[in-house]
Amino acid sequence: MSTATAAATHDDHEHVHYTTTGLDNRKIAVWAFIGSECMLFASLISTYLIYKGRSRVGPFPHETWTSPTGEVFKPILNIPVTSASTFVLLMSSLFMVMALAAVENRGKPGYGGLKGNSKFWLATTALAGTVFLGFQAFEFTSFVHEGLKITTNLFGSSFFTLTGFHGAHVTVGVLWLLTLLAIDMKRGLTPKDTLVVDICALYWHFVDVVWIAIFTLIYLIQ
Amino acid sequence: MTTYASSAPEQTGIWSWITTVDHKRIGTMYLFTALFFFLFGGLEAGLMRVQLARPNQAIISAEMYNQLFTMHGTTMVFLAIMPLSAAFFNYLIPLQIGARDVAFPRLNAFSYWVYLLGAVFITFPIFFHIAPNGGWFGYAPLTTNQFSPGANIDFWVMGLQILGISSLAAAFNFITTIINMRAPGMTLMRMPMFTWMSFIVQFLLILAFPAITIALVFLLFDRFFGTAFYDIAKGADPLLWQHLFWVFGHPEVYILILPAFGLVSEILPTFSKKPLFGYNVMVYSGIMIGFLGFGVWAHHMFAVGMGAVADTLFSMATMLIGIPTGVKIFNWIATLWGGQIRFVTAMKFAIGLVGLFTIGGISGVMHSSPPADLQQTDTYFVVAHFHYVLFGGSMMGIFGGIYFYFPKMFGRYMDEALGTWHFWLTFIAMNLTFFPMHFSGLLGMPRRIYTYDAGQGWEKFNLASSLGTLLLIIATAIFVINFFKSRKGGLPAPQDAWGAATLEWSIPSPPPEYNFARIPIVTSRSPLWDLKHPEMSSGAAHADADPVQVASANAVPLREETEHHTAAELGIPMPLNTVKPLLTALGIVIMFSGLMFIHLDHFALAMAVSLSGAALLIGSLYAWLFSPLE
Amino acid sequence: MPGKHLRRLPAALVVAVAALALAACGDQYPNTTFTHLTDLNTATDALWNRLLLLGTIVFVFVEVLLLVTIFKFRKRPNSPAPKQVHGHALLEITWTAIPALILVMIAIPTVKTIFKTQAKAAAGSLQVEVIGHQWWWEFRYPELGVTTANELYIPAGRTVNFALKTKDVLHSFWTPNLGGKRDLISNKTNYLWYTPNADIADQVFNGFCTEYCGSSHANMHFHVYTVSEGDFGKWVDHQKTGALGSPIAATPVMAASMPGMPGMKRDAKVAAAPAVNTAVNTAVNTAVNTAVNTAVNMAADSGYVFPVGKIPAHTIPSTPLPTGEREVKFDDTLLPNGNAVAGRELITSMANLGKAPCLTCHIVKGEMTMMGLTDNSASGPNLTHFGTRHTIAGGIYRSDAKILARWLKNSRLMKPGSIMPTLGTGELDPQSGKKLAAGLDDRQIADIVAYLMTLK
């Protein structure tokens, strides 16, 4: 689906067309897409919450579990590490705002230097996203080492699927940002391209907001 | 006025269809494909009714029967009725709102190709006796590997996933189209009722499909990667599937019926020579139905033991839906009241919907009451109920829509004599097939059984249903004959074939590729009617269009377009034909198909196929995004 | 022209529908849901009657209004141009309010009935555990120590509280005559209770699985026998015992020779019961045929079995034996000479377990059990009193030697998807597509049939 909408958002009329609302079609489509995505993540998060505490074997997110054979599994969620990755992702939203402003105000006074360097901000946003994904890869591997696989229990299945889906969304976002960066390097993004950056930013902020919900509901609330 | 011949498409040949991005051509392809699958699903039903005509028959094996009823449901819902509605969305929405195409023409082509490939993917296994066999709502844990180890359910899971992509992409497209592509003056409350109902349906689609997408992702992961979502031994709750499925499944019912309601709301006023009665209330009741539709899913689950409080809440919410639905029925009758009714075939089907859907609505209210529902659910009574809704409702509306819009699409009328035969045979056969099912259900016959014992009191009802099905197949054959005969040899139709009120009838039949030579300015709900019958339009609300919009769209007051020019002559930029949406769709299907090899223990092959599909997907997507539209 | 059709056809349809509806009240509809045989169904039917009445009123009103409208306002020559009416607020409010009112009239009794029928079952109710299996029913009476399959005995006049569970996929428990259904959900226990009227003793009711559960969903039936309290007590006393009539003491040597084998034990208490011993001795000492007859008589004396003569025709399954390529061929002349002692030897002797591993899935109380098999771990029906049952194979076949023989030989042809393996030598197993090389010959099957039929 994300590919479909990515396609929609780029289905570009080269010259300006009349629209009823005056807004670009792509902007409306991306809002509709985000509405749909809300239901997607709502389903995933609900499943996680419904299955919370139903797993028959550990490891568990917040409780220690002793297996029948006497093996002890510590609570699996590492909140300090994930807080760090959450911070990185939140910062990426700030970088995204800077990138959009740089494109929108290119050439305007006050947008020289680093502030007006859209390539830098796009790259930092993508980098922050990549760092977040790195944290996630680290988290997943350490969970597997501690005995939690996607097949282990209901917690493992719903946790990995939910966060994995989010990670996939971040990955698509990073690719999208890199594509914009490539365009910027090739021909330079101008204020005329504001919309293209804007819809990417909408998506990116949405993915961030979803992470805040996940971080609160899954990591912080015990 | 007779301009049918003047607007022959410039492009011909198979390649022009494969690469087309014209919403009318895509709508036509949807129509043909969906009609094919409608016939296919009907034949599946015919085979089932042969088996059930008499007790204790062994014409069809249990395994085959289970595949047939699963595929009949899946086919009719996902491959026939939804895409038939999509055919009308595609063809009509831009014409009704005064637009030259949909918002994203290439995405529109993509939706069609994904639908076609997904439909083939989910259908072909039946020829190898490995079709999905878990029922159209595929309840876990029956659909997990433990109880359904074969490939059958894999085809179903992935097929629905693929088809979901098509529906969602189309829904984003139409939402944008309706919000953003309306002609100046075409305010939301001036939109034709079909466009309104379609608008509501698109929101149902984008909000309901994610739930089934996730339910299917869980099932796919369970089946291929051993996750625990529906694994009973790991403590799973099988009701998770049911809740996710019906959170989608109930809005899906309105996704199937609202477009037909919209079509009927176009047909009834036209052939009564009166405007739709209570337009505003019709809009609000449609919105109410859509909104309440998200709060009633668990009425499919009264037998699962949710407890008295939940049963009560879902029961009350379900009864509430009866109110806006009833309002629609009465408003339609009021539209007819005082009119000058012409009984053309389209009108017969539309009136048929009003009469037959009422029966499905009443039986629906009957099982909104949980204690009564417990005697009815999963029996033939329910089968009767939803066929009155989906055949008596959706299909009657769609048939009416086809007869009504055929002249617009092909420039010729369908044959009225054959149409009359088609209607009456369908009407009789439909009642003969489905009405007795009320009785067999209330008299104890469970649904989804491939055989039943003699002496249970069900023989005559089943025989009647089977004879009815035979008749229904004959009726449908008449329709098919009429369709193809009229396409080439029907009476030529003028652009305003029926004396209707809305914009699509102001342009030639079939419409030129650009639809409107000049974007029209809309000042009321019935622009064409007002133009042609200024003396009768008194009382209709008129208001001028926003001058800024008029200027921006370079719009002109509505006139009847009779001349045909090419887009180039008129200087209208048209989207370029492209094969990239098809390649992208193909990439998706190949990517999913690769997974099938995991079950055959060819992990490397699976990865190879899936990755090449993904490569094709990403490659053609980028090529698509970086090539200009026009 | 079409207008004329339009007038006649619906009228004919209404007449046809009314005729069908009238016909539906006759007694040729044995599985009707419109009964007052239990408190549950009486409550449901009262609600249903209101739904039907209001539904019919709405139906007639709407359809008549529609027909009158299209007749009255059909296009005629010189009919005047219609008045362009766009709506009427008062009318629209009216037809919003009236359906709302009708729905309130439905909602109130609905809510009352929901809370009444879903309250906890009264204390002292008979507890029955219903356990769904692909594709048969297990019924346990936990307070009484009785386990049976596909045939449910309940005392008329006493509330029965069903605890519904499933061993595999979802099923649904439904006896149309007695009340609404409830699903059997994995990892969950559902409850359903009703009180059969005191005056419906000695009746039999059909039950069905109504949640699609795989290949043989259509073949998952059960039967409910309502009996008097007295008969119920006798039935329970009898069902509690070990397998009456089994030639159980005939092979004391074997029993003595393997007391220490792991996972296997004789139920000494049952084997020692005098009634059993007598029955067993009788059975062994006479010809097998006589033994069976004796056992039948004895079972009838010492316990209660629903009398064959009182079973109504519609509850006797008439499923035909499969024909054509699904036919199971069996030499029926072997059946009268089946040797119950040899049959027992076949299914209890370790030497034969590869061929006839009945006791790895089935329990015959009184016989040894394999690997500590219990009701909870047994995957097939409990066969202890198999001979007292009127049906086999999930209630789709009569319990009859000829049918049973074919069932044992190749159950998978008799019931699609059957989990019980194909046992006859040379038989094609439709699930694996392979021929069974080493299995049972017809004589051995006849012996096992003879043995099973003695399990009164």
Quick overview:
Chain B is an all-alpha fold and 630 residues long. Chain B has helices at residues 14-18, 23-52, 62-97, 105-123, 152-180, 193-225, 239-272, 279-292, 308-336, 345-366, 370-376, 380-410, 416-442, 459-489, 527-532, 547-553, 567-570, 580-599, 603-625, and strands at 520-521, 556-557. Chain B is built from 19 helices and 2 strands.
| Coarse structural class of chain C | alpha+beta
Q: What number of structural domains do the residues of chain A give?
A: 1
Subunit arrangement of the protein: heterotrimer
CATH C-level name of chain A: Mainly Alpha
State the major sheet of chain A.
2 strands, antiparallel
The CATH homologous superfamily of the largest domain in chain C is named: Cytochrome c-like domain
The largest sheet of chain C is:
5 strands, mixed
Average pLDDT rating of chain A? 89
How much β-strand is present in the residues of chain A?
A: under 5%
The unreliable regions of chain A are: 1-15
Number of strands of chain C: 14
Low-confidence stretches of chain C: 248-297
| Total beta strands of chain A | 2
Distance between the termini of chain C: 72 Å
What Rg of chain C, in angstroms, do the CA atoms define? 29 Å
The domain tally of chain C reads 3
- Our count of helices of chain A gives 6
Keywords:
heterotrimer, A: 222 residues, mainly alpha, two-stranded antiparallel sheet, 2% strand, elongated, disordered N terminus, B: mainly alpha, Cytochrome C Oxidase, Chain A, two-stranded parallel sheet, 1% strand, globular
Architecture overview:
- Chain A contains six helices and two strands.
- Chain A has helices spanning 2-10, 25-51, 79-104, 118-145, 154-186, 194-220, and strands at 65-66, 72-73.
- Chain A has a two-stranded antiparallel ribbon.
- In chain A, a hairpin with a 5-residue loop joins strand 1 and strand 2.
- Mean pLDDT of chain A is 89; it is low at 1-15.
- Chain B has one domain: Cytochrome c oxidase-like, subunit I domain (Cytochrome C Oxidase, Chain A), CATH 1.20.210.
- Chain B has helices spanning 14-18, 23-52, 62-97, 105-123, 152-180, 193-225, 239-272, 279-292, 308-336, 345-366, 370-376, 380-410, 416-442, 459-489, 527-532, 547-553, 567-570, 580-599, 603-625, and strands at residues 520-521, 556-557.
- Chain C is an alpha+beta fold.
- Chain C folds into three domains: 29-75 and 87-119, Orthogonal Bundle (Helix Hairpins); 126-240, Cupredoxins -  blue copper proteins (Immunoglobulin-like, Sandwich), CATH 2.60.40.420; 248-454, Cytochrome Bc1 Complex, Chain D, domain 2, CATH 1.10.760.
- Chain C contains eleven helices and 14 strands.
- Chain C has helices at residues 2-23, 39-72, 89-117, 229-240, 252-257, 268-272, 274-285, 288-302, 340-348, 401-414, 442-454; strands at 126-133, 136-141, 146-149, 151-155, 160-166, 171-175, 179-184, 190-194, 203-209, 221-227, 391-392, 397-398, 428-429, 434-435.
- Chains B and C meet through helix 3, helix 8, helix 9, helix 10 and helix 11 of B and helix 1, helix 2, helix 3, strand 7 and strand 9 of C.
